[in-house]
Here is the input.
Amino acid sequence: MTGAPDPRLPPLLDAVLDVGSALDLDTTLRRIAVGAAELTGARYAALSTAGPGREALEIRTGSAAPADSGNALDVPILVGAEPFGRLRLADRAGGGPFTAEDEQVLRVLAAQAGIAIGNARLYEEARQRERWIEGAAAVTTALLTGRSADDALLTVAERARLLAGASAGVILRPTPAGGMEIVTASTHDDPGGIVGTTIEPGSPVLEQLLGGEPVFVEDSATDPRMTTRVRHRFGPSMMLPLQAGGQLIGTLALPRRRGDRPYTALERHLATQFASQAALALVLAGARHGRERLAVYEDRDRIARDLHDLVVQRLFATGMMVQAARRRAVVGEVRETLGRAVDELESTIQEVRTAIFALQQPPAEAPTTFRGRVLRETAGAGALLGFRPATRFLGPVDHLIPDRTAGHLLTALRRALASATRRRDASRLTVTVDATATLRDGRPCVRLTVTTDGDTTATWQAPL
Here is the structure.
């Protein structure tokens, strides 16, 4: 004759089903502890994990952790053959000891918990992979939509920080001196104290970084390889090469705060893949930006050629005709009018030539010629004045004016422009650099003249 069924069998089955229904790992662990306490009547249950990087989970049901009185159950939880943690029960309701049946129930639950934890781990890893893949795709899309170089690096640093759960996302670039420097940082706080930090040549970690090798650090503050002045702020860290097609763009560093959990092998793998894809996107974005700049240069060259071949030649021909008419004119008033027309045409030709020169300069780079530097100064003043100053160059200024004299002239020009921008009623500003002028003693000189609303407000000259 068979005995009566164990009344705890239905609750055990319910607990097994409940534990196995959760895919989130933390929820699964909590259900294991609660279910074990309910099945055995324990007022205290604690589940501690053996794996690195996860804090112990403790569930209390009505009492604090009791002293070790011997009235307790403790069983291991295995995920496959790997120890995951231990489940401990104590303080049985009614004060009696735990029975052999209690232990058997607990071991059944622990075995099922191992399966559920394995499934939850797989789900968590799949979600992690999905997030990193989505993040890499978002970065690629953002970089290929026309971000500037600085914005592109910040986009990579910020998205990587969020994906990794890091305290900071940092981009380092090689320096001319052979070290590396933090050029971009995304942090919860002000990144100003991080940007500009350098890894000097000779640092133990530098050879690996410049060689395109990833570096993984358990504690940045105590690792002897870390030599930067901000290392004491951080704990676990990943330093990943941004490298594509043999080109090392820089290094992506993802440090966590001191005391935070270390990175898992999966997180290291996913972050390394992200860095590789981000580097490729940066290279593609740079190439795309280069093509766009080339197209702009080609358009500007075409416009400059059209201006030179059509507008300047026609203005010059018109000026010649007006000069001829001026010589044939008899009435003094007519000759004077034609003279003013010739002067205006010459001034217009000079301004068009200046515009042609400006079109031929790289727009986003510092000018290297004297003309370019003068145009940069006048353009800056124009932003403050609200209108574009007229700039005229007489003679081959780039060839005739030596560097030392050019520097003094630019200083004088800045003073004159600063004075002009303080005038609220200014409506027209003309800057003339004349390399064909002469001093009173007949020596050649360069003369700077700044005219505001027809009045000469500044004159400077120096011998050549």
About this structure: The first strand starts at residue 42 and ends at 49. The first helix runs from residue 9 to 20. The radius of gyration is 38 Å.
